[in-house]
# Entry
Amino acid sequence: MPAGWSEGGFAALAAASYAEEASQVDPALDYQGTITLAPVPDVPAMNQVLWREIRAAAGSGREPTAHQIDQLVFANAETIYFTRTQQLAGYDIDPGQVYGPNMLRIYRDNSRACLADLNRLVRQDILNYLRDDPAHRLDTYPGVRGDAPNALPENQRFYAENQGRLENSTLPGSILWLYGTDDITSPAAVTYATVNKMLINGNDINLGVLEGAGHYDVPVDGLPLIEARLRQLFV
# Structure
């Protein structure tokens, strides 16, 4: 039973798609199902939802909350890995079209930093920017150019060639899919849309909704559900 969290949750779904090939290589493998925790299934849709909420928070006229700043940190920091991956995979992505000057500098100097360090760098830069001028807002931070990079031709080619294969297939066995209602990385609207599409395609999905859980909370808050599924299948 492949299982994983976040990007690993998507990898667990990918492993399910190779279950038949795996059993051909090793007939002793008896595939039972998949556990996926807060996967990130649809990057373009996630970008649109995330930036819609960031723009709404910026337009409210109120001081941003910690959660809203977290959204902007995530929208900028993890995109560095995405852009770097595209370049290494042979896509002709121009970081200057993706990032404003602040994030372009961070990208060039820190694209190999671990996520914890990268989050701290980006968060501090955002906080400094907001403090520098009362007119500065979340959506004017010179980082990722909102969800506009979705429209760049090379990004669209990347999505067309790599996005949606799993969502449009029928995976074997049952899938336990857990997500938290406060998850920035895997927003509710994107999760529901993807799960509905997979159900229409004949997938057997049990969706567990963890009220108030963020992205990093899902593996812990969802542990009783994970253990229950494992007992169903293996005890």
Notes: The chain has a mean pLDDT of 93. The first helix runs from residue 7 to 17.
